[in-house]
Design brief:
alpha/beta, six-stranded parallel β-sheet, 217 residues, Rossmann fold, 44% helix, globular, binds magnesium ion
Length: 217
């Protein structure tokens, strides 16, 4: 069995480990918008290149969406077993078995770290933006995550995420091997930047496990 030594696999959460269909459905329901209409509008906002996905509320003329946030989060209730993509758990176990260290670093509320742990997701490092005080795509986010990982050479870290703007480009700028996971709305709608292409593109975490070594080719 190959041993990866000092190499790390650092995973995003939304649409990488967690299927966010339920949280976006909760938003649609809370706002009284049919789910298909709401999600189509989200796709249009992503396709327009709007980096700030909350622009979706603007499509419906909703300026005070924050007023609904507490109700949505209560209704959502946090991560559950069935929110995990089916390949998430086995991919983490597989890359660990191959000698990689595993981190999870994402733009998420602090409480999501504990929810992941309670689902049995226990990587070496678990860093949520709200807990560390800085979010992707800020370069400081990636610098802080590297610190939490004990300061590995960024070139020994594969960062795996579904978004070009928040994951691939800033991870590559931080010196990491950027792996683009083409699933979720951003993963299927966004296009890579020819000036900074991903080191590896995959369509599932099962494919990631098969091909992770290629991120360093
Ligand atoms: Mg994501």
């Amino acid at each position: 069995m190959p041993v990866a030594g000092a190499r790390w696999v650092c995973l995003d959460v939304g649409e990488t480990l967690i299927d966010e269909t339920r949280v976006w459905s909760t938003w649609a329901d809370e706002l009284g918008i049919p789910r298909l209409t709401f999600m189509a509008a989200l796709g249009a906002v992503i396709g327009s290149g709007d980096a700030y996905h909350r622009g979706v509320f603007g499509v419906f003329g909703i300026e005070d969406w924050r007023m609904s946030e507490a109700a949505v989060l209560e209704r959502y209730g946090g991560f559950r077993e069935d929110d995990l993509y089916p390949d998430a758990r086995r991919a983490i176990a597989s890359v660990e078995a191959r000698g990689y260290r595993v981190a999870i670093a994402a733009n998420q509320p602090e409480v999501r770290a504990e929810e992941l742990r309670s689902l049995g997701i226990a990587p070496d490092v678990l860093a949520m933006s709200d807990a560390i005080g800085v979010a992707k795509p800020d370069p400081a986010f990636f610098a802080r995550v590297l610190e939490l990982m004990g300061g590995p050479d960024p070139a020994d870290v594969a960062y795996v995420g579904d978004r070009i703007d928040n994951d691939v480009l800033p991870a590559a700028a931080a010196g990491m091997r950027a792996v683009w996971l083409r699933r979720g709305p951003w993963g299927v709608i966004q296009l890579p930047d020819p000036d900074s292409p991903p080191a590896l593109t995959v369509r599932s975490l099962d494919e990631l496990v098969e091909r992770i070594d290629e991120a360093w080719h």
